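To assess whether the prediction recovers the assembly geometry, we first specified each molecular entity separately, as shown.
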Amino acid sequence: MAAEYNICLDIGGTKILGAIFDSKKKIIYRLKKKTKSGGDSAQNVEEVIISVVDEMIKESGIKKSQINAISAGAPGVIDSDAGIVLFSPNLPWRNYDIRTPIEKKFGVPFYIGNDVNVGVLGEWKYGVAKGYKNVVGYFVGTGMGGGLILDGKMFTGNKFKGAELGHMVLEPEGPLCGCGQRGCLEALSSKKGMTSYFQQQISRGRKTMMDGQIVNGTFKSKALKKALAEKDAVATEAVDRACHYLAIATGSIINAISPDIVIYGGGIIESSGDVFLEKILAEVDRYCMPSIRDTVEIKNAALGDDSVLYGALSMIVDK
Amino acid sequence: MAAEYNICLDIGGTKILGAIFDSKKKIIYRLKKKTKSGGDSAQNVEEVIISVVDEMIKESGIKKSQINAISAGAPGVIDSDAGIVLFSPNLPWRNYDIRTPIEKKFGVPFYIGNDVNVGVLGEWKYGVAKGYKNVVGYFVGTGMGGGLILDGKMFTGNKFKGAELGHMVLEPEGPLCGCGQRGCLEALSSKKGMTSYFQQQISRGRKTMMDGQIVNGTFKSKALKKALAEKDAVATEAVDRACHYLAIATGSIINAISPDIVIYGGGIIESSGDVFLEKILAEVDRYCMPSIRDTVEIKNAALGDDSVLYGALSMIVDK
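The predicted structure of the complete assembly is given in tokenized form:
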């Protein structure tokens, strides 16, 4: 059987995940690769993708002729209709037509979308949000990504700039966010937000297991998991604070949109079991109109690291 | 020519506005009528509409056979696909099939939707938001209504409960809102929110022209207009505060959705010229991601009291 495989990529600022899906949507080969961190403007966007896809074909043993399509999620503002990366914060891509060179090289269709949007799409098509019509997704990592499925379609707003749910402003006089505003959800509840809290508490002389774990303004999820397990007071406070603001943001977006389901994903959510979800659930009702709260589910994402890969698959399958 | 007229209604808790549109979408007859205020559970929903429509036909001199369709906006949660009022805060309607009796009585199609959603629809089809694809609308009155046009369609979320933009939570420890939460936009920036501010300042012994203007927890827009014109300090502070929170809410929803345009309507916005808009514009950039702010317009609604009537017309015309 020809053209039975789909190659899907999750392109991050520091690593690329790849998967080859067979016609039954099973992953038959996986790749994980570190990328050069951003700023190398000489780096050619299609070279990265081409080399990774070439490597996946070679290592998996499939033939080029067996590839049906290639698809990717990447950070930034992406015109997924045209296959153009308009802007990417961590990658040296500006108004870059990435579709044409990839399609030319491999002779198959190539799709690309914003990684968080694509991740929510994956959870909607193959994960916890399957079958719902209106989905709100938060992906908590170093930053805070957001994605929306509205009326049964991925919603990306004007000029593909939505949905920056991590930049809803919760504390107008609060901590500075990377985006230049103050008190965004990202500045309060992401790893960066939690890192600020750790640094503040450490500078006040408090002891915490998170001291020494902070590298480049963030930390590893498993370090936090360990600190929580050992009831580290500062780590617990940081998570309580992150969940407090996630609960407020969740309540506001539930009232504003009346979605069917809100989901939380990302390494830190996943590695902590239901710690985040339970804290959010304990508080969120305070910020939801009861009549709207009654008809919305609030759950953790189900696909873990694979949500972007499955979302990329869905971009192929649903075309 | 038969069936050339459309009858459109804006059904409020205290008054009904009606208009007869001709085939050129001109209003040829208007009606304004006080309704009994809510709570009279014996009051029959279709009786209200039927009597108003009957009166409009009689007074305008058109014939029943010249009516093409009837359409209405009303407060509450409304299944506009089925023509069922699921819940209405100020009207004694619960899971009420209103379409069937009206269509039976007049023999023409009847459409109904939530008044704020329908008002935003009117501004989108015939007003300031014409031609845009993603529209966010705030209607500031006694309460604070919200409406969304997303991807070129009215968006009402799960079970028709969206879009309660007035109940995004901005101050979790702030003033109590009618919905039971604290610090909703409505509790801060609507007439009810401003009224709380006036009452607080009056109880502190401050003098204001708004003293004596407050009836049933609200006030008339023209009283505020006059106080602003005479540079009443407390009135100015209340508007500054209302616009401060409107700016934060607007920034958050702009970041979350990336709309093409945000519009403000409602009596108090309209009667104050550009006072609200200018104050919001002076502050909103602080709460918007610059890259998203670049592609969104922020304007006042254009149709005044007629936005719901035009939205109701659009429900007929676009069917």
